[in-house]
Structure formats: structure tokens, C-alpha cells
Amino acid sequence: MMGEQRNLLLAILLSVGIIFAFQYFYEIPRLREQQARQAELARQAETAQPTALSPPAETVTPVVPGSAQPVGETPAQGPRIRLDNGRLHGSIALSGARIDDVTLADYRETPDPESPEIRLLAPVGTAHPYFVEFGWVAGTAGVVVPDSRTLWQADGDRVGIDRPVQLRYDNGRGLVFTQSFALDADFMLTVRRTVRNDGTEPVTLYPYGLVSRWDTPPTLGFFILHEGPLGVLDGTLHELDYDDLKGGPAQEFKSRGGWLGITDKYWLVALVPPQQQEIVASFRYVPLNGRDRYQVDFRGPALAVAPGQTIEVVDRLFVGAKEVDKLDRYAAEFGIPLFDRAVDFGWFYFLTKPIFHILHFFYKWTGNYGVAILLLTLLVKLAFFPLANKSYRAMSHMKKLQPEMMRIRDLYANDKVRMNQELMALYQREKVNPMAGCLPVLIQIPVFFALYKVLFVSIEMRHAPFFGWIKDLSAPDPTSIFNLFGLLPFEVPSFLTIGVWPIAMGATMWLQQKLNPQPADPVQAKVMNLLPIFFTFLFATFPAGLVIYWTWNNLLSIAQQWLIMKRMGVNVS
Length: 573
Known about the structure:
The chain has helices spanning about 1-45, 240-245, 325-335, 350-365, 370-385, 385-400, 400-410, 415-430, 440-455, 500-515, 520-540, 545-565, and strands spanning about 80-85, 90-95, 100-110, 115-120, 130-140, 155, 160, 165-170, 175-185, 190-195, 205-215, 230-235, 235-240, 250-255, 260-265, 265-270, 280-285, 295-300, 305, 310-320. By secondary structure, the protein is of the alpha+beta class.
């Protein structure tokens, strides 16, 4: 018995040690990194104004796909045309026709509506340049094509909904280039490019598009979430980590159509070439003067432009939030394959995405994602109601046998083999399956994981409030019992932030255990009694929406089990 108690104590200490170690060595540094990143982004939002850019420390040379030599680059200064559709703010530099200034009007750095807008793209000369450009690579010697220094002429000053702007450049040697930018009501830019040959000789050109991101951005580092370059090429999803590119050669893929870009947890910048066009897509790392630079690009097929002829290429650029309904709509409207995979729904995609759609449906009905989670939980309980009923009947039967099980345990306390034999004989006589009680938990696990995924990766859950103090269902409950839930005037370390909802979850778990038959093994019984405490600490780090789901699910299970036990005449005190 002393050995069993020692093992139990060691198990408890190890479990608590793991929780504290996880918080101290992982969760706290991660939260500090996020806070530092938010502060940096806020600073950028204040200083990175497109009309007043500071010059860079050096001239840089980005790689243009298919070119023999890099093209020289200077920061995009000078005149600009605005981008504004109410959801997307920013500008396009006329020097280089580069899309390098985009913020998202509907999304802020924090739940505070006065915090800065999320900055997605930033020009060269700011802290962390991130931009997109479309251009041409000459396939004929001596042909002058526009580059990052080219100053384009615009026929308007603002790109808005149903308000395109065309840029024009004449190379003075017979070729006239145009780029027309059109913006829809959300996050899709249509880029229509033409080349007219007024010369006397045919020329060959290759269209390209690229996304360039300087410096390695901070990532959450979760294995269930991809952040970095990605794309769907020839129907296959490719996800590359920044380290994959930094430590290896450029990766190329041939594809008919598809899409490629760079993703963050909630944001996406993606190139969408013509879907019937053969392209060569590349993911590459191009360091310069100690700075990391990542580039995602595609090069289209050779296009011959005869004298007097005009060719046209239409590309699209997604730059915005990964709203699932918008990604689905663009996929259907423009034939973009697997565009919704930009949201990392994971291996359980077949379960995760339907759960998202159910939640979103309930949200549109109620206007609150927290209420939507409660309704989803109720729907899941109804779906598994007959199966759970069968399991709870078996558990109630086990509860009835508890006195006899305790008698056998006491009688054969010194003979574990005989005790187990007698217990199995009892189960067989009474036609009871001791594992039946595990069934409700097992059937919840896939739903639990899928909901965790939805809460973790869906932009729709970001900063989504519930009621009271829960301002963000995708973040942990911010209250803590150790400062009396904010009544005492001091901050609590994150590993001691055990809020109201995790405590409620632990309490409901404890109540549910009281309805269940106790294990015959006393050590196992003690461990089971400690699980609510263990899970209270564990769930304190989980998104509040997930804790609300589990607590509400426990309450519904308790009610269902209590009613069954009353009908079967089982003592529920």
C-alpha cells in the first residue's frame, strides 16, 4: 500500500510538473513573443505611411523568375494610387507598379476597436517589407521591359469597387505595357496586363508574378498549424516551412493553374494565375546582407507578340483575411482548386469544416459564436443520444453493483489475481460491460479535436466575444482565481491564470465522476478523483470557446445520466 501511495504521489507531482514546465518554458515565452510582435506591428502601423517613406540602407536585388540576372530595386517612393473598398485600405506605388501597402479595415491588433488595423503588406524602407508585383521577363535579347524602377502613368487616383485604374508604360522602343487593377468588395484584386507591339519585329515575353517577404516573421510554432509558403499545384497542396526554404534549395513545381502564396495564421497573400495556363511555380529563399528574404513566384509560358498585335494576361491576387465563405466563393467563381485549404483544417478536414459551417450557421442565427458553440454541443448530444443512453444505462448498472464490487475488493485485498477473477465473473453474471462508461468520452474526442481546430485556425473566431468577460473565444479565459477574478489589484502569472470557465469545467467533471461507479482499485480511484484538478489546470490554457463547449457538454451529460439513474432506481446522492 505504501508503494502504491508513493507511485500515486509521483504521478501527481509529474503531471503538475509537466503543466508548469509547459507554461514556463513554452506558453509564457510564446505570449511574450506575441506581445512583442503586436507592439512591433502597432509601431509599423504608425510609422509605415506610404506617402512618407524613409530610404533604405542599401539597394537590393530581388529575383525575378526566369531572368538571367536579378533586377535592381529601390524603395517604392513617389506617387501612388489608393486602394479602398471599405474592407481593404492601402495603395499601389506607381514606381514599379508594386502592391506594397495594405491594411485590413475590419481587423485590429487587439479586441480594442481603437487599436491599429492589421498591416498585411509594407513597402521597402519599412521595418519588414512584404509586397507583390507582376511583370514580364524578356525572351528576346535587347527588349526593354518594366522593372521595379519604372514609373507608370495612371488614369485614376483610386482603385475601388467597380472602379479600376489602368497604369501605362511605353518603353520607347515599340512596346506599350498596361496594367489594370480592379478590386472587388472583399479581398480579391484582378490584374489585367496587356502588351502592344508597335514595332517592326516580333518579341517573346514571359509573364510572372511574385510575393516577396523580408525577414522571418514570428510564428506560433504549433504542429497543428502551418504558417509560411504554400500553394495548390496540379491539385496537390504543398506546405513549406520557412526553415525548409532557409535550409535548402529553391523548390519548383510545374502546374496547370493552381495558386500559391504565403500564409499567416489568419491572413493570406496568394497569387492566382490563369487556371488554364501552364506555369512554373517556385518557392525560394534569397538572403541579402544578413537579412532573410522569402519569395513565392510563378512564370507563365512564352508569349509571342507580333508587330501590330496585342496580348493580354489576367491574374488575380488575394490579399486579406482567410474568411472561409470568401475562399469558397472565390474557388467557385474563378475555378481556384482547393482554395479553402489556405485555412489549415488539418487531417480531419472532413469533420472540421462541417463543424465550422454548423457553427457559422448558428452564428448567423444568433449573432454570437459562444451561443453557437452551445447549440453545436446540444446538436452533438442529440446525434449521439441513443448511444450515450445505452452507455449511461450500463454505468448505472455498474453503480448498482458498487457495494458488491467493494465487498470483493475488501475480501481479496491481498490477492489481486483472485479479485480480478471475481470481478469479471460478477460482470458476466450481471451482463455488464465495465468499459461501456468510456464510450461517451471516446465519441466526444473527434468532435473535441475538430472544434479545437476550428477555434484555433478560423479567423471568424478571432476576437469573437461571448458574454461578460469573455471578449475572445479563441483565447484563454483571462480571469484568475488567484486574484479573485480581478478584484485584487495585481497581475497573475500566466501559469496561474485559472479562470471562471476552467473552474466550472473542473466542477462539472467532478460532479459527473460522482455519478459514475468508482474503480475497484483504490489507487486508480484516487487518480480518477484528482483528474478534475489536473484538467482544470490544463484547460486554463485552452481557448475559452473550447472550455465552454466541454463545460456545457458535461452539464448535459450530467442531466442525461441523472435522469437514467433515477429511472433505474440507482442512488444518485
